[in-house]
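Appendix B, Record 12. Input sequence as logged:
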Amino acid sequence: MTTIIKEADLIESVADALQFISYYHPMDYIRALGEAYRAEKSPAAKDAIAQILTNSKMCAEGHRPICQDTGIVTVFVKWGQDCRLESNKSLQQVVDEGVRRAYLHPENKLRASILADPAFTRRNTKDNTPSVMHVEMVPGSSVSIDVAAKGGGSENKSKFKMMNPSDNIVDWVLDMIPQMGAGWCPPGMLGIGIGGTAEKAVLLAKESLMGSIDMAQLKERGPRNDIEELRIELFDKVNALGIGAQGLGGLSTILDVKIMDFPTHAASKPVAMIPNCAATRHAHFTLDGSGPAYLEAPKLDEWPDVNWTPSSEAKRVQLDALTSEEVQSWKHGDRLLLNGKMLTGRDAAHKRIKDMLARGEQLPVEFRGRVIYYVGPVDPVGEEVVGPAGPTTATRMDKFTDMMLEEGLLAMVGKAERGPMAIEAIKKHKSAYLMAVGGSAYLVSRAIKGSKIVGFEDLGMEAIYEFEVQDMPVTVAVDSAGDSVHHLAPLVWREKIAREGLLEEA
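Logged structural output:
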């Protein structure tokens, strides 16, 4: 007997799932992160995890996005062969209508980040469509769907290699992880795909991230096959690198490793690795023809009892009276609370500034004596001044750093590490780079008390805003001497882990 899947039911189910995962973390992630928080010995990493957990509960309560980057939608569909879609549209069109409705929801509008014509004009589609969809026909009379919303910061850190059959997968992973830096917002998950062809290995890695976190249970019962042994080995060895939450040094870089494999050619061993960030967002639902599928909300008392507050050691900084001398007094690792007015700007704004300076045109704002925040916020709803507004990956702005510091900029705020080019510019200009926690976008937005667009309004979320902030928490990641906490702290914690056996205690 044929099962009829109605167009409206599929649209509603996709839209509901995407709204759901925008503000509810999977509870397996929250439980694992809670355990990581309890075990963490690094004060900086523990503070970062506390911000992520606090932000997560705030989002669950307020139904607002966990991260300002609400992701590119990926959909895995297992379509039962006894099912028929009742629609005159393609499956892609129906799913994309669900995406459209989710991202334009008036009570929780999500950030549209998808650009058409990616190599050239890069025009925003305004509704986050199209999704990336993978369909498999399977026996049965139901439709099984996994939806995910993948942030660009973690997706950009994906790795792939066509290995020789004799090459060692563990060695390759341990070589790649430090190269990935902290732009993928650890602690998260690693998805690994092994075998098939090049594109199959990457697909396996992405699909593996749809699984639940179960590393603690796996270690407790012990591995039953080679893949499970590999998962445990990679989990232990990656965490022993000491990279830690947000790259600040610590015990928990990853919470799980998921692996899927597929038969491959005798001459090949394709391997792909994709990280999932602190804004882990995925959900599963099934349609059987009886109507839309709705996900059950978790109970708020399931979150760990963690309520982040600013460190007593944090220094309050008045941005409106900030001087170069004060910036030079900061040392890497210092915690600051920013107060006053700051500018924002990210990829598109920096590119336009560069083009305007090359043409000798006047910029819309004066950067001298100011601080810039790399962010693309979510639109506000209700009484909000601004929607979730967490930092974007700072390394994408590295090539513009010297130019901006020449314009008189005093400091920059973003997430993750800076590259050699940016660090050299920071040393040259006696500037500083400050790090906000990726995965705490709603928490950060509560520190923003005023917001207005002051330049490049046509760029939407990439416009230049002026934010007025109150006690916005940041850490000095690169000081005026060029010392980087992202370079130094993991080395310290790697040595401590090896010397003191900290992971065995955890």
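The chain has a mean pLDDT of 96.
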